[in-house]
Amino acid sequence: MRLTVEEHSEAVRRYAHVGRARGLGARACGAPLPATGRRCSRDRGHGGPHVAHGRFGRVLAVWDRSAVTRTPDRIATSEELRASRRPTRRKKAPARPTSAASSSREAGLARRVGAWVRAHVSSFEEALFLVMFLAFAVFAVQWALLLLP
Predict the structure, then answer these.
(1) How far is the C-alpha of 53 from the C-alpha of 106, rounded, in Å?
(2) Which residues are within 8 A (CB) of 16 and not within 5 positions of it... i.e. 6 or more apart?
(3) Higher local confidence (pLDDT), 70 or 139
(4) Are 30 and 38 in contact (CB under 8 A)?
(5) What is the spatial distance between Cα 44 and Cα 27, in angstroms, rounded to a whole number?
(6) How many CB atoms lie within 10 A of CB 104?
(7) What pLDDT does residue 81 have?
(8) I want to staple 33 with a disulfide (CB 3.0 to 4.6 A). Which of 3, 38, 56, 93 is the partner?
């Protein structure tokens, strides 16, 4: 079974009640739908079909495990590439500087905060509410400092 919004919009609506992974430590399943960029957004270890959600919890695609095809046998695995000593297609990334300057510390903090948000905030709505809450908190502190000298 493989249903997408583009091809089977009526059939996908039957799965509108299926929710995405929610909660503070919840992890999404992440199973990919072949030939698309969509991934399952239900809880890891769920039962039933895989479901990909879009913005505001809209169901975009539904598929089961039989729709996920295996990689073809003609594609060589990494062990076979190493055994035949053929060069890989990817080039090695250039080395990054490891200095501990103040600007790199700030960039590191922003990168760590971004990684934490991606790991703990599972939906667009939660990220939007988090930004709105932080803006309100900054606004409230500024007004408190202005009114209470």
Answers:
(1) 34
(2) 58, 59
(3) 139
(4) no
(5) 6
(6) 14
(7) 58
(8) 38
pLDDT above 50 (res 4): yes
Three-state DSSP class for residue 90 = coil
Residue 116: what residue type? W
Q: Mean pLDDT for the chain?
A: 78
Query: In the 8-state DSSP scheme, what is residue 55?
Result: G
Quickly state the pLDDT bin for 76 (edges 50, 70, 90). low
Q: How confident is the model at residue 133 (pLDDT cuts 50, 70, 90)?
A: very high
In the sheet with 2-4, reading across from the earlier edge strand, the strands are: 2-4, 59-63, 50-53
Amino acid at 4: T
Which residues, including other chains, have CB under 8 Å from residue 125's CB and lie 6 or more apart? 56, 57
pTM for the full predicted model = 0.44
Q: Are 5 and 12 in contact (CB under 8 A)?
A: yes
Instruction: Break the chain into its structural domains and give their ranges.
Output: 1-71, 101-149
